[in-house]
Amino acid sequence: MDYQSQYKRAISDPRGFWQEQARKLPWYTFPETILSDTAGRDEWFADGQMNTCYMALDHHVKHGRGDQLALIYDSPVTGTKQSFTYQDLLNEVSQFAGALKQKGVEKGDRVVIYMPMIPQAAIAMLACARLGAIHSVVFGGFAPRELAVRIDDAKPDVIVTASCGIEVDRVIAYKPLVDEAIRLASHSVNHCIVYQREQVSATLDATRDSDWCDVTQHAQPAACTSVNATDPLYILYTSGTTGKPKGVVRDNGGHAVALNFSLSAIYNIKPGDVFWAASDVGWVVGHSYIIYGPLIYGATTIMYEGKPVKTPDAGAFWRVIEEYKVNVIFAAPTAFRAIRKEDPDGKKINAQALSSLRAVYMAGERLDPATYDWTREHTGKPVIDHWWQTETGWPICANPVGIEAFNTKPGSSTLPVPGFNVQVLDESGNTLPAGEQGAIAIRLPLPPGCLPTIWQDDERFKASYLSRYDGYYCSGDGGYKDNDGYVFIMGRTDDVINVAGHRLSTGEMEEVLAAHPAVAECTVIGVADSMKGQVPLGMVLLKDGAAIDEATLEAELIAMVRDAIGPVASFKQAIVVPRLPKTRSGKILRKVLRQMVSNEPLNVPSTIDDPQAIDDVKQCMRKKGVIS
Ligand code: COA
Ligand code: AMP
């Protein structure tokens, strides 16, 4: 069936469309109810019984894939390479699930995972899925305070961690960070399982901590626990507009069905192919396309513990593609910008060595035409920009090459994927004609795989996503469709920024800056960066009489953000301004500031309190070199 027919069918008959997709998976009990409504929320496959780990591992082993490679670990930072067949991975996961069980973990319990990109992270996630427990992976670049916030929200029984992570050549001891987070959290954590890496040996507290190898050795392998399709598989915290991250919930059934569909429809992958998402398990890309998607689909996935550059050089990605005969790579545009910067002429690319590669997929931030062109030209492969979010868990817009390949247009993530009724709305919720820019919204119901709610906060879920436009999910992104229906995502309409493909909240950074004793008021906006896409810029107003020079203040603010949020925030610049442009009611005009730094025409509202503030801020920005 061609794209248009599939797209229309998924919109006009979502039950029929997704029932057919669901049939491709091995359920314990196939759902009779495909789409239903619980307390005003749509639910998929409510009476289906299944287990995600069973679908990802046991089923494949039972059906002849036991000897096929499931996961390849490649770590240039430690010089390690390791392969796991489906049978190997099943053994490891069953054993670790047994260890978790021994610690008392049961269906519905939460387990926080704070791990670097090592196979044990995948094993821990799948082991939770096996038990019906809910994992919450926290990215290693977040500081203890961020980890503590997530511990307090998810209330885990167990934390799984490793003794260290490695950032290029810098070893970062994780255990002291976890200890600090546990100390900061109000929720008390009873068990911490630590995978000891040879680079650092973590000190264990005998009353709470155990060594991964010890507990695994003495465990009985655990079988899969049957769960309802609507039971949560994981919680993944993502930045919202406030300081408190949102615990995006992912269910088991809809997630499996959606990912399985996407592997063929969007990535055009066949079981047995090699799929490489060069991301981190701490992000949604890692969940969907390093772990669950490729494994449920029966492909081979790659876990790469390294960077696109410096581990050891800009040829790293091409080496991995050649060595493992990767068929599809997926990474953030920032990774390719980093490679291009070090190897502008693509000298490290040997087109012949990339013969296995069919396409390069990019997402996580806007794909700028220069990066698109460079990658296409130097790899000779199609470059596919696709748009999605932590909330949706899989692509909303893409070139659905597995169904029908379309011509791409630079700057566009092509067409809505079947299941996503994407509309561009004006302020009042009217659909805008082609070419006009507005808020990108998705008509309900969302397809399977998208967030059913925010962890233990239905109200926030509805307020954040469903209340803005009646009958729609509001994406938080702005953009437009052209006459051919191609979707162009132009950027966030809220206070979320994208730094090196990492989603961050400026509101959260503002909370940190505001805590400095010399700061009276502040704001943080994203400014364009040629490598990271965006980086945060702090603007602060000093308290009357504050005696601190600007350089010292900037250094202190940088240290505070690094301490509170983590190095991943990449907060490296702050300027002192005499005042901030505000409305008469005192609201900071962030949109005007954003327009200022991107050299766009300023839409200054008539409600501005003091127009002179704009010139003052411009002057400070010029002095700092933020604008010319
Ligand atoms: N644990 C601890 N620290 C981490 C970390 C982790 N898992 N990940 C990043 N950090 C640190 C980095 O060491 C760096 O610290 P520094 O300020 O002391 O140098 C800081 O957080 C910022 O990291 P990053 O944004 O990754 O910048 P970088 O300069 O180290 O690398 C790129 C730049 C472009 C190479 C890198 O950002 C990259 O590969 N991006 C791809 C992003 C991606 O995969 N996104 C997922 C969505 S698809
Ligand atoms: P995350 O939840 O971390 O995946 O970030 C989601 C956000 O990243 C989206 O809301 C967009 O703002 C941005 N984003 C992701 N993919 C794209 C893309 N292909 N083009 C433009 N922006 C994107």
TrEMBL record:
<dbReference type="InterPro" id="IPR020845">
    <property type="entry name" value="AMP-binding_CS"/>
</dbReference>
<dbReference type="InterPro" id="IPR045851">
    <property type="entry name" value="AMP-bd_C_sf"/>
</dbReference>
<feature type="domain" description="AMP-binding enzyme C-terminal">
    <location>
        <begin position="508"/>
        <end position="587"/>
    </location>
</feature>
<dbReference type="InterPro" id="IPR032387">
    <property type="entry name" value="ACAS_N"/>
</dbReference>
<dbReference type="Pfam" id="PF00501">
    <property type="entry name" value="AMP-binding"/>
</dbReference>
<dbReference type="Pfam" id="PF16177">
    <property type="entry name" value="ACAS_N"/>
</dbReference>
<feature type="domain" description="AMP-dependent synthetase/ligase">
    <location>
        <begin position="64"/>
        <end position="444"/>
    </location>
</feature>
<dbReference type="InterPro" id="IPR042099">
    <property type="entry name" value="ANL_N_sf"/>
</dbReference>
<protein>
    <submittedName>
        <fullName>Propionyl-CoA synthetase</fullName>
    </submittedName>
</protein>
<comment type="similarity">
    <text>Belongs to the ATP-dependent AMP-binding enzyme family.</text>
</comment>
<dbReference type="Pfam" id="PF13193">
    <property type="entry name" value="AMP-binding_C"/>
</dbReference>
<dbReference type="InterPro" id="IPR025110">
    <property type="entry name" value="AMP-bd_C"/>
</dbReference>
<dbReference type="InterPro" id="IPR000873">
    <property type="entry name" value="AMP-dep_synth/lig_dom"/>
</dbReference>
<feature type="domain" description="Acetyl-coenzyme A synthetase N-terminal">
    <location>
        <begin position="3"/>
        <end position="56"/>
    </location>
</feature>
